[in-house]
Design goal:
Elements (H helix, E strand, L loop, with lengths): L12 E3 L9 E3 L1 E2 L17 E3 L6 E7 L2 E7 L5 E5 L2 E6 L11 H4 L2 E3 L4 E5 L8 E4 L4 E6 L2 H4 L3 H4 L8 E5 L6 H6 L6 H19 L1
Parallel strand pairs: 1-13
Antiparallel strand pairs: 2-4, 3-6, 5-6, 5-8, 7-8, 9-12, 10-11, 12-13
Family: Belongs to the ABITRAM family.
InterPro entries: Abitram, GCV_H/Fam206, Single_hybrid_motif, Snake_toxin-like_sf
Protein name: Protein Abitram
């Protein structure tokens, strides 16, 4: 069987905020403390903390080069800037991992046609734009795929993702929004890829 020209399968994880369980976890670090954020690594368990039942969200504070990550008492999904200090809040498991400020944390708004990344495939002399596909916010851009693009093929349901996006809308409206979106199931997506590969192989033959 001839190898397809399509080298990478791009998987965008679309997330929406649901109810929080008592098992909410947040990343915790503080520059100047025992676990400075300058050494932060989302892969290391020592930076993960189980929040108490009264804590409903996660927090990231960015003041110049200094950062603080912690659990937070209230359920908020927003970023604000006051006196040149940025405060970002989110309400899902391990959502405060962003290494930078607003743009990576979720304040960057996108529309269905917004380009979230560009990909150049082997044997092609042009760049493909990868669109957001939804109206919402960028929660996280996966920096790992820049260093290791094969993650998209090796682990498409885990670490091999391009971005995590949050749908725009009130919690009670999200199910309706999703039901009205022309999304593909996993089986439909895989069939689309197979059909595309067969077409490409036929063209090569």
């Amino acid at each position: 069987m001839m190898r397809s020209k399509l080298k990478f399968i791009l998987l965008i994880l679309v997330t929406f905020k649901g109810g929080l369980s008592s098992g909410l976890r947040c990343y915790v670090c503080s520059d100047g403390g025992d676990m400075p954020c300058i050494n932060f690594d989302s892969e290391k368990e020592k930076f993960v903390q189980q929040c108490s039942a009264s804590q409903k969200g996660c927090h990231l504070k960015v003041e110049g080069d200094k950062k603080i990550r912690s659990c937070f008492e209230k359920k908020i999904d927003d970023c604000k800037v006051a006196n040149e200090v940025e405060y970002c809040f989110c309400s899902t498991d391990l959502c405060n991992s962003a290494k930078a400020g607003k743009r990576k944390f979720g304040a960057k708004q996108v529309k269905p046609n917004s380009t979230i990344c560009q990909v150049k495939l082997e044997e092609e002399n042009f760049t493909r734009n990868i669109r957001a596909g939804i109206t919402g916010y960028i929660v996280e851009i996966n920096e790992s795929v820049k260093e290791d693009p094969d993650l998209l093929v090796r682990d498409p349901k885990g670490k091999g993702f391009v971005a995590i996006l949050k749908l725009k809308g009130q919690h009670g409206q999200l199910d309706e929004i999703l039901n009205n979106m022309p999304l593909l199931t996993e089986e439909e997506y895989e069939k689309t890829l197979r059909d595309r590969n067969e077409t490409n192989n036929a063209a090569i033959d």
